[in-house]
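pls read this protein:
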Amino acid sequence: MKQTRNVAVLVYERVDTLDFAGPFDIFAISSGKDRDFNVYTVGETKEALHTLSGIAITPAHSFDDCPMPDILIVPGGMGSRTEIHNEKLTSWIRQTAQHAELILSVCTGALLLAKANLLDGLQITTNRRALDLLRELAPSSVTIVENVRYVDNGKIVMSAGVTAGMDAALYVVARLHGQERAEQTAATIEYDWHEEKVQNSLHLAVSASKAELEIKRAASDDLEAMLRLYKEAARWIYEAKGLRQWSEDSFTMEYLEKFIREKEVFVAYLRGELAGCFSVEWGYEPIWGEHFHTDAGYVHRLAVSRSFKGQGLGGQVLAWSEAYIRGRGKTWMRLDCMAENPSLNAFYVSQGLSLCGRYDAEGWSANLYEKKL
């Protein structure tokens, strides 16, 4: 059964109206007929407060009775400069973040995340007029990114000023429910979505054989290269192992278009050539039954081009996946692979993964591996 995500929008005295109202409407309108999002406001109390522009609002919930958020939106405004000294508010943000799937800060909401001690090691941004203050509040381990609309660290997404929060909210909708859903939402409200090419943990550059391995979210421009890669992998499995673990015919443009639309799919490029492809998934996988649990990210459909064999790409993809899954607040990384491939299974063990399950079907089988993060 599909789960409705609770989206809590924090409000406080002198919050910026568009900072909270823009993302609120984005999630509410994109919720769809299946009610994918339950959106509500939350304040320290239920007493009426005023936005920076003087609009009176009454929070639907207080900290004491707020439903547990899956997504927490922390907007900015001049009031954030006062609220950074409100220990009850910053403590609530910190405690809520422990259980939330995703945190989205808008504008100077970044200051509140800094005071809640949530930014260690992240790439962060805020309104350009507040960058100096953010530098003072954030730990030395952060990297401040300027001149972007938003950055994505996995669990924590941060936007620049005011309307950039709407861009970031649409990005989150696309991340969770696909690009088409976000585009439909933007069209509904007649908003010109400033979509960012995210330079962050979803677009991580790492060293590989003295060249740059670039991992990023898959897009339509990647489909033809992905099709060649997956067909090559399916063909190799059959020719080398005599198994039809993957059917070459099952990889079509239609399948891959649906794949990148409905799943979090990533591509890895080396020297401008597609070197690997995989997805990270969070939902229930029927074949694993009692072995499945929700405190994990599941790496699926991992394929590395034979053209780059021996260059350590598999290990770097796994390292990237670990960081991404950890950033989403999960404590386990899991992946499945072809069971009847001793060298591949030995490789995963060498990377610190442990076998925790096996599934056998007619003509193919899979092992399930996991690693504590």
